[in-house]
Design brief:
By secondary structure, the protein is of the alpha+beta class. It has a single domain, classed as SMI1/KNR4-like, CATH 3.40.1580. The chain is built from nine helices and ten strands. A hairpin with a 7-residue loop joins strand 4 and strand 5. Helix 2 packs parallel to helix 4 and helix 2 runs parallel beside helix 8. The longest helix is centred in the C-terminal third of the chain and has 17 residues. It is globular and about 45 Å long.
């Protein structure tokens, strides 16, 4: 191994300045760093945060989730907790074991939406989803809750008023998700296990409790929820409505299917004040 040369020590120059008593007073000047030291102390250039590549409006399902995962990896494989209101401190991806994912279903026994299955293969611990493993060795299920149970946890003060929506509008199972930071802090966001769309995806709905409870679509599927959260599809600039720009048609179709023809008469800008149906 070649021996490294020790850089020469810089000489200290001394300036002489007369004091008040006329005597010379020595004042050392700061030595100039040697080239070797300057190279060691030079600050590295700031790293730019990569901007996610926007997806085309035709992208849906697994392909859209792959884009979101690619954006996360480009940012250092840090899960986007900073882009949520209630995300966990854990930001390192932890895949759900393939053996568990292969037998995991929704609570009602249906297959997982393709986009959700792809995400769980990348990380199975960041979202507030729980797996019920007590249904036999051959299968396991995601734990679901009724809408009224979510309301009791998230906004107990509105429980008595909103609980009837279990039978009026949202009788299906609900799976809580993290609240994106573009939403108001008093917002409930959840995957709703109603009818799947042509891509096999289930809608992500949001209810804003600020002022009066209002429901809207955050994304026509889990794929759009995740892509919008990460930034690979453009946000429309508001939290509730028909979902991200470029996907409004899918969002409006989802909204109409969820609220039903009777309630649509009271809808405004793809949102519905729930007081109009209770």
């Amino acid at each position: 191994m070649a021996r490294s040369k020790t850089p020469a020590r810089a000489k200290v120059k001394v300036k002489v300045k007369a004091g008040a008593n006329g005597k010379a007073r020595a004042k050392p000047t700061r030595p100039r760093p040697t080239k070797a030291k300057a190279a060691r102390t030079r600050k590295p250039p700031a790293r730019a945060t990569p901007t996610p590549a926007l997806a085309a409006a035709s992208d849906r399902g697994v392909g859209l989730v792959d884009r979101a995962i690619a954006a996360i990896r480009a940012g250092g494989s840090v899960l986007p907790t900073a882009l949520t209101i209630d995300g966990p401190a854990k930001t390192k991806p932890s895949p759900l074991a393939a053996s568990a994912l292969g037998k995991l279903t929704l609570a009602d026994g249906r297959a997982l939406p393709p986009s959700l299955a792809r995400w769980l293969a990348f990380d199975g611990a960041w979202l507030p989803l729980r797996v019920d493993r007590g249904v036999g060795a051959a299968r396991c299920r995601l734990e679901a809750k009724k809408f009224s149970a979510l309301i009791a946890e998230r906004a107990a003060y509105a429980f008595e008023h909103l609980a009837p929506l279990d039978r009026i509008m949202l009788p299906g199972d609900c799976y809580p998700l993290l609240v994106p930071s573009e939403c108001h802090e008093e917002t409930l966001v959840f995957l709703y296990a109603g009818d799947a769309d042509e891509h096999g995806e289930l809608p992500v709905l949001a209810i804003d409790f600020q002022d009066e409870p209002t429901i809207g679509v955050y994304g026509a599927g889990f794929d759009l929820y995740l892509a919008r959260l990460v930034g690979v599809v453009p946000s429309p600039g508001y939290a509730l409505g028909a979902g991200p720009r470029g996907y409004e048609r899918a969002g409006r179709a989802t909204f109409e299917r969820i609220v039903g023809p009777h309630a649509l008469a009271f809808a405004h800008a793809d949102t519905l004040a729930l007081a109009n149906v209770l």
